[in-house]
Each structure stands twice: as structure tokens, then as C-alpha cells.
Design goal:
19 strands; alpha+beta; Rossmann fold; OB fold (Dihydrolipoamide Acetyltransferase, E2P); six-stranded mixed β-sheet; 2 domains; five-stranded antiparallel β-sheet; binds adenosine-5'-diphosphate
Length: 365
């Protein structure tokens, strides 16, 4: 296991592109960390700097307290799993697993012991004599994980390892990788653009955008306490609803709405006259509009989608499109008027200019 420290890490590529800005993070021994963000936000660059495949332009990177900026990849004690499985097609699963150890000149008996143990963890024992072409995508990815696992490293790096798999295999591999992590305990950094993967697998998530960390926290913290609009919109599926307006007399005003913000913002005078974003999650609404401590909002239904356990309702509030998750038994008709409630403790307010959350609007969550 290993403890990693990133202190003001920056990456500027030779063409002058500044891909990672002031990346600061402490990763504890054995932690499972996901770097998540849209394509091009600097996740792989960060991972490659950890692996020693990319120079660090500025800042300090430590492994177990030892400055590692100049440390060779070999000495870092890492294993990496990529999106493409990169298995040797002419070698069997056994030989693929054994390959690295064979190169290191390790005794065949010891190799056999390790291959058998690794195959057992990954459920590959009965496939050891097969060639990669006779395996499913999920099994190939398991062999790729096995090749990393067999080396007993202290740091696991995974770059979108599941993106070549179909939806069902992804869900299965997600829990397998978690279980492997639990039994092996290596510090793991996992790169993905998929927020569901990050939410389900991580101890902590690092949300990145345009080369900068937006927020670091547990899945729970990011879901309930997003610090800015980017994180609020990125975490959660379907995404959080945003209604933009101006604060006048302590109320959010839009063409279609007037909502009193005093119940959810302590110092409402501090945002008077400002442009703000009123936000709530699709799954946080209720169809019961009676009672207090909730906002009641009128909408027009454009479209409904029955998913089975829930119905997605696509509606508009004036000229703003919203998505609402509703119990199928209470779903409105397409084209009808639909009033729904947002409980005070499920509403957020963001400053539209700084894009930061108004802190007191988090207090009730
Ligand atoms: P992600 O993994 O989040 O998709 P990357 O770390 O691969 O993003 O890339 C971050 C940014 O750096 C992208 O805009 C990409 O085009 C740029 N980039 C990646 N590699 C190089 C390179 N060798 N030279 C210049 N720019 C690069």
C-alpha cells in the first residue's frame, strides 16, 4: 500500500498546452480514488504523471513521503490497466498472466503458484488454456486486471478500464474491481468520464474540469454538498435541474416563477439583486404539494418515459426545461399541467456569476 501526495502539480505539454493546473491531493494508504470529468479535462495526463510516463512540469509528487518526480516508472511500484486490454493474442490466458514474471526470470513453480492464485481471485481458472480471441470482453478485461494484480504492486492505476465493455459487463466488472480492491488493498487511482462508475466505486472522487480540480469528496459529499454548478451538474443522473433568475426582495424571479428564498438562504440580503441559479435534483421532488417547508412549482409536461421503477417526466417551467422523477403510479399525462414540490431541504442556490454555491443553502441537506 502507498500514500500519495500531489502538491501544486502542473502539466504544460511541449506545444504549450496547460493540461493540469495546481493539482493538490492527498491519497491515503489503500484508498480507491476516482478522477472523473469530461473528455479532455486532464484525467489521463494526471494518471500518466503518477505512472512516470509523463514529466511533471511543476509541483511535487510524493510516494510514501519520498519525492517521486524523477523516480523511474519501475521504481514506483505501480501497475496500470488501460482501456484497451492489450493482451498478447498468441499467448494463452495463463501465459498472458505469467508474461511479466517470466521476463523477470522468476522460478516457474512460483509463477505457477501466482498465476493460479490470481486466476482464482478473478474467476479465470477454467479459462487458463484459452486464447484471448475465445474470451468475452469482460473476461479479457479480467485478464488485463490479473496481469496487473499478479505483480503485487502497491499502487494500481486504471484508465477507463471498462469503456470497451457492454453495459451489463460494466456493472459486473465494477463490483468485481471493488471486491478485488477490498481483498488486495492497493492504493488505486481510477480514471473515468462516467459519474455512475465514480459514485459506485470510490472512497473519494476528484471531479475535474478544464485541468482543474472542482471538488474532492466522498460520493455522499459530492451528491449532497456540491460546491459549484459544475459539480452539481456533473454528479447525478439525470442531472440536477437549474432555474436561472434574479433575486428581488429576497425572492427568485424568473418569467414564470417567484420563489421566496428566505427559508433556504440565511442572509438573503447578501444575494439581493444578484443573478442566481435555483437548483434541485430530479429525484428530490414530490407530487404531494400540500403542507409546508416546500416550494410548489407549476410546469407543463412535454414527454414522459416509463423506466419501470420510476417515470422520467420532461417538463417546462416557463422557458426552462426540467426533468423530474416520479413514481409511475403518480405520473402525469403528456401535455398536461403538472404541479410538483421541491422540499426546502432539497433546494440549492448558486451564484450565477461565480458559479459557487450559496453556503447557507447547503445547511438543510
Ligand atoms: P482526459 O483523460 O481527461 O480525457 P487528457 O489528460 O488525455 O484528458 O488530456 C487533457 C488535455 O491535454 C486535452 O485537451 C488533450 O488534448 C491535451 N493533450 C494530451 N496529450 C497531449 C500532448 N501530448 N500534447 C499536447 N496536448 C495534449
Amino acid at each position: 500500500m502507498a500514500q500519495l501526495s500531489f502538491r501544486n502539480i502542473n502539466k504544460v505539454y511541449p506545444n504549450g498546452f496547460h493540461a493540469v493546473h495546481d493539482f493538490n491531493l492527498e491519497i491515503n494508504d489503500g484508498e480507491f480514488i476516482c478522477l472523473v470529468g469530461s473528455s479532455g479535462c486532464g484525467k489521463s495526463t494526471t494518471l500518466r504523471m503518477v505512472a512516470g510516463l509523463e514529466d511533471i512540469t511543476a509541483g511535487e509528487f510524493y510516494i510514501d513521503g519520498q519525492l517521486a518526480n524523477q523516480m523511474s516508472s519501475r521504481d514506483r511500484g505501480i501497475a496500470m490497466v488501460f482501456q484497451s486490454y492489450a493482451l498478447y493474442p498468441h499467448l494463452t490466458v495463463y501465459e498472458n498472466l505469467a508474461f511479466g514474471l517470466t521476463l523477470e526470470g522468476i522460478d516457474a513453480d512460483i509463477i505457477d503458484e501466482k498465476v493460479q492464485a490470481t486466476a482464482k481471485i478473478l474467476g479465470l481458472t477454467e479459462y487458463l488454456e484459452r486464447f484471448p480471441r475465445a474470451l468475452s470482453g469482460g473476461q479479457c478485461q479480467r485478464v488485463a486486471v490479473g496481469r496487473a494484480l499478479i505483480r503485487k504492486v502497491k499502487i494500481f492505476l486504471m484508465d477507463e478500464p471498462l469503456s470497451n465493455l457492454d453495459a451489463k459487463q460494466r456493472v459486473t466488472m465494477r463490483s468485481e474491481i471493488k471486491q478485488i480492491h477490498r481483498s488486495v488493498g492497493a492504493t488505486t487511482i481510477y480514471v473515468t468520464h462516467d459519474q455512475t462508475e465514480a459514485m459506485t466505486m470510490s472512497d473519494r472522487i476528484v471531479v475535474m474540469n478544464a485541468g482543474r480540480i472542482q471538488q474532492t469528496g466522498t460520493p455522499y459529499e459530492l451528491y449532497f454538498y456540491p460546491q459549484n454548478l459544475f459539480v452539481a451538474g456533473f454528479i447525478g443522473e439525470p442531472p440536477m435541474n437549474f432555474i436561472r433568475g434574479t433575486v428581488e426582495g429576497g425572492k427568485l424571479k424568473t418569467e414564470a416563477l417567484e420563489l421566496d428564498l428566505k427559508p433556504i438562504v440565511d442572509d438573503v440580503a447578501s444575494i439581493e439583486g444578484k443573478k442566481v441559479v435555483f437548483a434541485f435534483r430530479p429525484e428530490a421532488i414530490t407530487v404531494d404539494t400540500k403542507g409546508k417547508d416546500k416550494y410548489v412549482i407549476d410546469s407543463q409536461v412535454d414527454l414522459t418515459e416509463l423506466l419501470g421503477d420510476t417515470t422520467n417526466v420532461y417538463a417546462n417551467v416557463g422557458d426552462v426545461n426540467v426533468i423530474l422523477k416520479v413514481n409511475p403510479h403518480h405520473a402525469p399525462e403528456m401535455g398536461s399541467a403538472f404541479s410538483f414540490a421541491v422540499p426546502y431541504n432539497a433546494a440549492y442556490v448558486f451564484d450565477a456569476e461565480t458559479e459557487l454555491v450559496v453556503p447557507s443553502s447547503l445547511k438543510r441537506h
